[in-house]
């Protein structure tokens, strides 16, 4: 790994809008690679950023003469309404691109033939991304993970020719690619999410399928077997000469599957997932199958997969046990920002005290009804707690609107003790931005409160 040359984008004028984790890294990296960068954030006048070489921090009045606009993923360029700077870029004919696009351009301009892997899907992206990088590291293959889960694409170093970038790609990022070619790409699953940004499920699906753009002969596409119309999609990809693998977390997937806890393909058993204690549940079996399929294709030895999966420590805020009190496990699954993701965690436990709530996605928690019988009591927080309460009331699920995490955690412990329930599960099924800066801060607050509980 090494730094990028300082002249890769000399002569280019690049606009960067949004200076959060992705945008600030993009502005600094592009400036360091020789570009003339103008960057701005709608909150910058309240929290100025220190001067950065090659970067001018100033609001945009006109984008004429710019070569590209890099917008942070959370800023809309079409629906529900384009940001004024995005509209300005379109009027000036300036392409709107992702920071991942510029990483690809930088790697190629630097002369590296490092390969790129794109990981997308509604749920499981982060785990699969980091797990794949872990498998590659275990095999001694230079690899680095980043993108949507962090670190930002343009904060990653230059890899050598045999290196591999494993990028988690959100639907927002995938809409803003121009030349980025993924040697291997996967679509894990697809359930309704971010419909405000994509209009409807068809628009969301189109955005996700961009991960396979520019793939052709010699590339790999991996599909989760639950992806809608999976067989038709696989046929279309194969018609372009792409090697396609359809995988899953149960026995029905055609190319790689799990039966009796064993990860298998047509050649036999690959790994015993009972050894992989940080990958519980069918959904994580799907993540393991996807990462393994790509790792084998990239050259990982088959006989090291079992050991590598077993040594994976998991990710924060994804079904992580963060404490045990009186035999009651407290599990942080704050990353579950929609019902489908929460269902994956809930299905791992026969009986639980459930902490949920925040900003509900379309459909709320109605789809979780088949799992409500596992909920001994639900404690609801956040803006849409009343909406969730109505759904639980309709299914006769015991619940209490407590409003905040500060009230939910001690109430959950008391209920678990009284009812003899072995698990307190934070799996909110909602976005977090009503009370927290993100799912990470929500999970950290949960852990802080658990650490302060009485343990007589």
TrEMBL record:
<protein>
    <recommendedName>
        <fullName>UDP-N-acetylmuramoylalanine--D-glutamate ligase</fullName>
        <ecNumber>6.3.2.9</ecNumber>
    </recommendedName>
</protein>
<dbReference type="InterPro" id="IPR013221">
    <property type="entry name" value="Mur_ligase_cen"/>
</dbReference>
<dbReference type="GO" id="GO:0051301">
    <property type="term" value="P:cell division"/>
</dbReference>
<dbReference type="InterPro" id="IPR004101">
    <property type="entry name" value="Mur_ligase_C"/>
</dbReference>
<feature type="binding site">
    <location>
        <begin position="121"/>
        <end position="127"/>
    </location>
    <ligand>
        <name>ATP</name>
    </ligand>
</feature>
<comment type="pathway">
    <text>Cell wall biogenesis; peptidoglycan biosynthesis.</text>
</comment>
<dbReference type="GO" id="GO:0009252">
    <property type="term" value="P:peptidoglycan biosynthetic process"/>
</dbReference>
<dbReference type="GO" id="GO:0005524">
    <property type="term" value="F:ATP binding"/>
</dbReference>
<keyword id="KW-0961">Cell wall biogenesis/degradation</keyword>
<dbReference type="GO" id="GO:0071555">
    <property type="term" value="P:cell wall organization"/>
</dbReference>
<keyword id="KW-0436">Ligase</keyword>
<dbReference type="GO" id="GO:0005737">
    <property type="term" value="C:cytoplasm"/>
</dbReference>
<dbReference type="InterPro" id="IPR036565">
    <property type="entry name" value="Mur-like_cat_sf"/>
</dbReference>
<keyword id="KW-0963">Cytoplasm</keyword>
<keyword id="KW-0131">Cell cycle</keyword>
<keyword id="KW-0133">Cell shape</keyword>
<keyword id="KW-0132">Cell division</keyword>
<dbReference type="Pfam" id="PF02875">
    <property type="entry name" value="Mur_ligase_C"/>
</dbReference>
<feature type="domain" description="Mur ligase C-terminal">
    <location>
        <begin position="317"/>
        <end position="430"/>
    </location>
</feature>
<keyword id="KW-0573">Peptidoglycan synthesis</keyword>
<comment type="similarity">
    <text>Belongs to the MurCDEF family.</text>
</comment>
<keyword id="KW-0547">Nucleotide-binding</keyword>
<dbReference type="GO" id="GO:0008764">
    <property type="term" value="F:UDP-N-acetylmuramoylalanine-D-glutamate ligase activity"/>
</dbReference>
<dbReference type="InterPro" id="IPR005762">
    <property type="entry name" value="MurD"/>
</dbReference>
<feature type="domain" description="Mur ligase central">
    <location>
        <begin position="119"/>
        <end position="295"/>
    </location>
</feature>
<keyword id="KW-0067">ATP-binding</keyword>
<dbReference type="InterPro" id="IPR018109">
    <property type="entry name" value="Folylpolyglutamate_synth_CS"/>
</dbReference>
<comment type="function">
    <text>Cell wall formation. Catalyzes the addition of glutamate to the nucleotide precursor UDP-N-acetylmuramoyl-L-alanine (UMA).</text>
</comment>
<dbReference type="Pfam" id="PF08245">
    <property type="entry name" value="Mur_ligase_M"/>
</dbReference>
<dbReference type="GO" id="GO:0004326">
    <property type="term" value="F:tetrahydrofolylpolyglutamate synthase activity"/>
</dbReference>
<dbReference type="InterPro" id="IPR036615">
    <property type="entry name" value="Mur_ligase_C_dom_sf"/>
</dbReference>
<dbReference type="GO" id="GO:0008360">
    <property type="term" value="P:regulation of cell shape"/>
</dbReference>
